[in-house]
Amino acid sequence: MKSAEIRQRFVKFFESKGHEIVPSASLVPYNDPSLLWINAGMAPLKKFFDGSEIPKNPRITNSQKCIRTNDIENVGKTARHHTMFEMLGNFSIGDYFKKEVIPWAWEFLTEELKFDKDRFYVTIHTEDDDAFEIWTNVVGIPADRICRTEEDNFWDIGEGPCGPCSEIFYDRNPEMGKDDVFHPDNHNGERYLEVWNLVFTQFNHNADGSYTELPKKNIDTGAGLERLCSLLQNGETNFDTDLFLPIIEETARLSGKQYHTDLNLDVAFKVIADHIRTVTFSVGDGALPSNEGRGYVIRRLLRRAVRYGKVLGIEKPFMYTLVKIVGDIMGEYYPEIVTKREFIERVIKAEEERFHVTLADGESLLADVLERVKGEGKNVLPGEEAFRLYDTYGFPIDLTEDICVEQGIEIDREGFEKALNEQRQRARAARKDVSTMSVQTELYDELDIRSNFVGYSEAATSAQVLA
Ligand code: ATP
Ligand code: MG
Ligand code: MG
Ligand code: MG
User: Fold this and answer.
1) Residue of minimum CA distance from atom 23 in ligand 1
2) Fewer CB atoms inside 10 Å of the end CB: C or N, the chain?
3) Looking at this predicted complex, what is its ipTM?
4) What's the EC number here (predicted)?
């Protein structure tokens, strides 16, 4: 079943249960300073959940584009995470509650999509006996397929509606650890794939951090379209589906490398396919690369993708040429990425060209430094020098490392990390002084902290680096 059909079937299924189908909102939150990006299907519907607006129909369904920067490092590593994905959702604004939504989710999965009933497991909140009762007695799931957990089963994204949840998992590989007792974290979350989260919204998380019972209880659900696709198309990962393969195939053509021949190259293919979607959609929704907030996310994703392009041997701007493919795949449901295609391409191309200049400048600076080091009869590049290239010129440390290795020079990694940490402390302290936008502070912290993996740590800590 193709992705477009799954998306369509979902919203049509809930339309048949009295829901109004609403189009995806922009990725850029409207009137919501608490969020950097729309990160869940309910985010643009908060106004209904908190009662500040009354919807025409209290039952709503959508397929919402979402961005989650906290999943950047997971992309290409796990089978199931993207920076941008589509969340299929059904919502009840003070209308139906648990006893309707649980059986409907089950009906959609097992009757509409015809998944094997015996491969599902669910989690519920430790204290949620109502949910347990509905899953076992109404739906008929054996009690030993239900796991009560505390941490992951309370949906709370900060200010706004929140409450206990019940998550639905599909066993991708019953052969794996046959005697396992189900727990969502087993096998790093890769055996039991979380496909759908049902949130029983009964509280409001207030600005001062307190929680109050909502006058009317709500339902908010989210199912990952890409994950359903991977299951229905027998893809090993979300990337092995009609949503991503055409992008990967084009990247393979451009690079002359093949997908599924080398694990490292596969990560590169996946990251590129992921990031081009995020950048295409976010620029399509009016965000632009910059050194702050949303723009910084776009800039960082593009630069990451360019670096992964280099892993595949692509040395020229290429990301912008993939915008068309993204449009071919998803433009029918999201016409904005087709009508704005030329603009999106132009923005991406300019940004890619700029980064290539940064890289070229960095390379020549590094050549000078190495010349000097060798002239002094040494074979270690001082950590501060590596850091200066990284911090002042935006030159990625792993590139410095590659070049040094080629020339038989070592990097003083300890010195580099020390300088990096000092810079982070300074940046954090500075942000604490001037920050009025907590979301942004968090974002920088997140990007700083998470930039430390397999060397792709180009997330520059100081904004001017990226100018
Ligand atoms: P996971 O535990 O796998 O990271 P989650 O619990 O963070 O997922 P939710 O916040 O419950 O996810 O979001 C609802 C649904 O959206 C998930 O059940 C999943 O199907 C999908 N989803 C969440 N994050 C991502 C992502 N980064 N990429 C793709 N799909 C996602
Ligand atoms: Mg998650
Ligand atoms: Mg989860
Ligand atoms: Mg979840």
Assistant:
1) 224
2) C
3) 0.99
4) 6.1.1.7
